[in-house]
Specification:
globular, 7 strands, five-stranded mixed beta sheet
């Protein structure tokens, strides 16, 4: 089964946590669901570099990584997801 490794930012600001809604997707079971923003780690990048780059690209925000949160491994019907999440501000 295909493995996808991603990073996600749990952005905490003014006592709120940011979630974003996914768009349409070829895998209908994840389309339009909510997620923490982030994305794939590029070759030669650390997870921390990747999450800062992804948030800047997607949301035009500069973030600070406050701490490692949790790594989740989940088997979807078509792929395995490994998500490294970070508490950010």
């Amino acid at each position: 089964m295909k493995k996808i490794e991603v990073v996600a930012a749990v952005i905490y600001h003014n006592e709120k946590i940011l979630c974003v809604q996914r768009g349409n997707n070829k895998y209908k079971y994840i389309a339009f669901k909510y997620e923490f923003p982030g994305g794939k780690v590029e070759e030669g990048e650390t997870n921390e570099e990747a999450i800062k780059r992804e948030i800047l690209e997607e949301l035009n925000l500069n973030i600070t990584i406050d701490s490692n949160f949790i790594t989740v491994n989940h088997d979807y019907p078509d792929f395995t997801l490994i998500m490294h999440s970070y508490i950010c501000s």
